[in-house]
From TrEMBL:
Coiled coil: none annotated. The modification N6-(pyridoxal phosphate)lysine is found at residue 111. One of its GO terms (cellular component) is cytoplasm. One of its GO terms (biological process) is threonine biosynthetic process. InterPro entries: Thr_synth_N (IPR029144), Thr_synth_N_sf (IPR037158), Thr_synthase-like (IPR004450), TrpB-like_PALP (IPR001926), TrpB-like_PALP_sf (IPR036052). Residues 93-336 form the Tryptophan synthase beta chain-like PALP domain. Keywords: Lyase, Pyridoxal phosphate. This is Threonine synthase.
Amino acid sequence: MYFISTRGGKERVSGASAIVQGLAKNGGLFVPEKFPQITAEELDGMLTMSYAERAAEILHKYLDDYDKKGLLAACEAAYSRFESPDPAPLVKIDDGVYILELFHGPTCAFKDMALTLLPYLMRTGCDMCGIKEKILILVATSGDTGKAALEGFKDADGIKIMVFYPSDGVSKMQKLQMCTQDGSNVNVVAVKGNFDDCQTAVKTIFNSEECAAALKQKGYLLSSANSINFGRLAPQIVYYFSSYLDLVSSGQIEMGTQIDFCVPTGNFGNILAAYYAKLMGLPVRRLHCASNMNNILTDFLAKGEYDARREFYKTTSPSMDILISSNLERLLFEVSGRNGELVAERMNKLKTDKVYKITPEEQAEIAKTFDGGWANEDEVVETVYDVFCDTGYTMDTHTGCAMKVAVDWFEKNKKDTTNMVVVATANPYKFPQDVLYAVTGNDVRDSFKGIKRLHAATAMKVPASLAGLKDKPVRFSSGVSPDKMFGAVMDFVSD
Ligand SMILES: *Cc1c(COP(=O)(O)O)cnc(C)c1O
């Protein structure tokens, strides 16, 4: 399988190259040349497999340049680091409504599903491509990617990792998780600005030949652990298959029955992986794209116009506080009939004018599968509270946004009997004060008091990795403005 750029051109690379490089040379994102198909027999065969075995099957369809046994061993190692024996358990909370819990990894957010595996894909990929330089991974994070990437890549051979986060844009717990990170090859820096400023500055470094040359002189090659990297997307496709198979093997649905997913969305990576699963042949009917107050995707899906000329809100679901959703570019590529020139035009327009429009045909194509909705801050609180009261289930604020969108869907479509899987992206203890407030109305300042009280209210198990943060020393406290980021990168590789 080869990978090509969303912005056209002749570049055509192997899976290993796509992962090591991160971005295509013309600034586009790598996409598979075509979508591998999963047959009904293959799906049947996967029913009795473990999560890791299912993962190796699906990953190898895209990454057929990697050794399949090696992939399986890597998946087994990655998912053995999860707290639960099943890395992606499905919880039924009502008739036809399920929660897919993706937060049982080392850093308690769904990013672990891919970032526990990416170091293997990257390291092995470098060897396969005969790369002699060391790798420098740059990450822009809205909170959860940074920690998951740090944890995945810490002390990895021949790799350094540097994470930039918006100084006021992440939760206290997220900040503490990152700034106490151990490992000899890691660095964490706060950036004055919001996530989009961070992400744009990191992309600028990626696209700059000057930066690449300066780093090469120091013996480093740049790569990315953000969801623009196909190595992030591929492992995310797996849990859509796996949850479907779990519904079948537990007798909740019959093989072939279509289901819906509702996904809390920021950079459009998670929900795009669901779309890829559908394009591979998974029986998915609709994908519900859930946003918070930064509801640019809701508007885009309704109007066919992506308009970033709007206020940016800081919300209680910070990992979704994003106005420029990078992975939407991959969806545009598909619905434009894989027209790279058109995608490039729009991405340039987004950069210069902060707005672009798609054609009515493209809009119709998207609407065949996607619809969008959003939750304001009060609605998140109400939804988390209602679900807790009605079912005893505690969800985090991001998942709360998705749940609200799912509830609205059922309100509007009362006769719809299609099963809905709501994707849960973070452990509630990652946002303890906000979840505590939603569940009990109590307001506490301190995150650890929040954890204690949330535990008292819900009796839910506290993940050791979060409780243990209290006693860890803070290692990183520096900050820079976006224009000084590359300077900080050079300092880091010169150490
Ligand atoms: C990253 C993240 C999201 C958004 O996922 P995208 O792939 O960026 O759309 C939602 N919820 C949580 C908790 C996250 O960490």
